[in-house]
Amino acid sequence: MSSSDEVYMVYRELLLPNETHSSESVKFAEEFKFKDDDVLVVTYPKSGTIWMQEILPLVLNGGDLTPVHTIPNWDRVPWLEEKRLAVVVDKLTSPRAMVSHFPYSLMPPSFFTSKAKVIYVMRNPKDIIVSSYYFHQMAGFLDDPGTFDEFIDKFLEGRVMFGKWTDHVKSWRHTELGDRIMYITYEEMVEDLPAALRRISDFLGRNLSDEAIKKIAEHCSFTTMKANTMSNFSLVPKKYMDSDKCPFLRKGIAGDWKNHFNAEQLARFCSVIRKEMESEIVSLPWTLD
Ligand code: A3P
Fold it and tell me: What is the pLDDT of residues 221-245, one digit of tens each?
């Protein structure tokens, strides 16, 4: 692993991995023309992005497994800000599904004038940092996270890709998007995936049968996705992602933070997040203590 200066570019004060982003790719995102029937999933990294790259095509097409069995996740539901979008954009069929880690303020002008729908996925930041810590160890294109203790400081100070979790969440909770945006949590999806799929399907105006929902839920289970070569990153050379160090689909549970934080770290982490989320705390689905 290399130092952070080599692995990240800085774009509007955010660190973006050089391996997947470039000045051309962010310019492409800035000039991207959203269509009214586009669907965008927005996440802070490690909140369930890849999961939604599996779910979205299936909900949109009524459960036809062809795309998730034949197209790698990064081309199937590409990232708005990554290099691959320019390569695959012409192959996307309507309604196009994309993902983004950008905060609200970095959405391109066409996004605001379109009717494109957004699904914002939130996850408990205590689990995000644990997932991210392991991801930094297996991803050769990211910097060395140091010890978990050191990584806590980096995360809290926003010295990680896409900046502070609190800034990201806050930016997407105060939008003018009205019923164009839906919020869902990773925890809700872990607890009852069919119910979460029903909410997503209703939001997207798809009238899926119970049978279709069941089929999609089975296909999008952690175990099935872990075995899907189009979604588990096994197609990526080991020098970029080394699943021998840690699989990308690592645990897929809520609450793994309990196995990683000591009491002092938890208090430090929660006090910073609590302070920065002061005005939001009542409506957060997890306790921050
Ligand atoms: P863990 O590291 O806690 O296991 P992202 O795609 O945003 O990078 O998020 C990755 C996290 O989502 C990982 O969390 C991964 O295991 C989890 N994930 C991916 N697919 C999942 C699924 N089908 N069920 C539960 N968790 C899933």
Answer: 999 999 999 999 999 999 999 999 9
